[in-house]
Design brief:
The chain has helices at about 5-20, 20-25, 30-45, 50-75, 80-100, 100-105, 115-135, 140-160, 165-175, 195-205, 220-225, 340-345, 355-375, and strands spanning about 180-185, 215-220, 235-270, 275-305, 310-330. By secondary structure, the chain is of the alpha/beta class. The chain folds into two domains: about 15-115; about 180-375.
Length: about 375
């Protein structure tokens, strides 16, 4: 698409007008208008429209943000200081933006600093958040403790190391966290196979905070005993209900192949010339295939320590098929394709060890299991 020169300049003017913040000024969005005009002046200190916008919008931005902060503080809202911090942060941002932009300093020569107001608001907001957290923590339940955790986190964001907010936040985290014991039942030793690799992967997944919530912690029975946990909330039991490793199936298929118009020899003619003789060639191909199937079924139960309330019960199955083919032939190899001849170069191979096949069929089980665990615990 082509534009004529006047239209092209008109588009540029419109873009320049938008980036100057004039539209935000006209809509009463004074803070945004100031920020846009200042950003424009960073790249073009002499941009006329941006200077005009900044000159008009700045006083209105101060007035509206100050009024909003003071009105909020005059109420009995439980989070009035946290709301005030938002307003004073914007006011402080206006000060810093103008101060650090030479083009803006030529318009607003003495921007107003709100460092003191912001510092006081943060101190009060920290106290406000801290007190709310203490009240919730004293309610002694997991849901309230979770809310308390975020209040203490807010307090520390306003004032680092505020009182004992760090210790209170960790206490809230502990009280809010669902404590789950992992019971992974080992494979009976009579099978001479180990599920350690699978179980280690599951445990690694659970410890990597991939379960879907930061307020869920998993412990082995040994860790529960060692750390002397005062209580546990749930038990996650994982065990192999059934598995078969190394089911072997063999098959032999024989087929005869023919190919026409193949040179089978030559003959000397009466005049002494040699003429090729064409005919049909045949070969009998014997294809051997060996398939070894390994599969298993894993059960996952999530229940309360009393063993009565079953919260979730799922079963996951996995299968691994090992397949090998090789062939031999009798007859003329020219009757066979390249692929068939390649197959004839192969010989019978040994199957992987049973332990390897055990690990392979657990891979799809692992994916199903971890997906269900993540989905279940994301609600916490």
């Amino acid at each position: 698409m082509k534009f004529s020169l006047p239209i092209y300049f008109l588009v540029l003017l419109l873009v320049a007008g938008c980036s100057s913040g004039k539209k935000q000024l006209e809509r009463g969005q004074y803070y945004d208008a100031v920020i846009k005009s200042v950003n424009r002046l960073k790249g073009n200190p002499d941009h006329k429209k941006s200077k005009e916008t900044l000159r008009s919008a700045y006083p209105f931005a101060l007035e509206s943000l100050e009024e909003s902060a003071k009105q909020g503080l005059s109420t009995n809202q439980p989070n009035k200081w946290r709301n005030a911090v938002n307003q004073y942060e914007k006011l402080h941002n206006l000060y810093n933006s103008i101060k650090n932009t030479p083009g803006a300093r030529t318009v607003i020569t003495n921007p107003k600093s709100y460092f003191t107001e912001l510092s006081d608001a943060k101190q009060n907001a920290a106290e406000e958040s801290y007190n709310d957290g203490v009240i919730l923590l004293n309610e002694k339940n997991r849901v309230s403790a979770r809310e308390a955790f975020f209040h203490f986190q807010d307090a520390l964001s306003f004032v680092p190391n505020y009182k004992d907010a760090v210790e209170k936040m960790e206490q809230a985290r502990f009280d809010a966290t669902l404590k789950v014991v992992i019971e992974q039942i080992p494979v009976p030793t009579r099978y001479k196979l180990s599920a350690d690799f699978f179980q280690d992967k599951v445990e690694e997944f659970l410890r990597s905070n991939s379960s879907g919530s930061q307020f869920v912690a998993f412990y082995t029975p040994q860790e529960v005993e060692k750390s002397k946990l005062p209580y546990i909330d749930q038990i996650l039991r994982i065990q192999f209900d059934d598995f078969v490793v190394g089911q072997e199936f063999k098959k032999v298929e024989t087929e005869t192949f023919e190919r026409d118009s193949v040179v089978v020899g030559d003959v000397e003619m009466a005049d002494g010339t040699i003429k090729k003789v064409y005919g049909t060639v045949k070969a009998k191909l014997i294809v051997h295939s060996k398939q070894i199937k390994s599969e298993g079924l894993v059960s996952m139960q999530i229940f309360k320590p009393d063993g009565v309330a079953i919260l979730k019960h799922e079963k996951f199955n996995g299968t691994y098929l090992w397949l090998e083919k090789w062939a031999t032939f009798n007859g003329d190899e020219r009757a066979l394709t390249k692929e068939q001849l390649q197959l004839c170069k192969r010989s019978e191979m040994y199957a992987p060890p049973p332990q390897d096949m055990f690990i392979r069929f657990t891979e799809p089980i692992y994916n199903q299991l971890t997906r269900q665990i993540r989905q279940f615990y994301s609600q916490y």
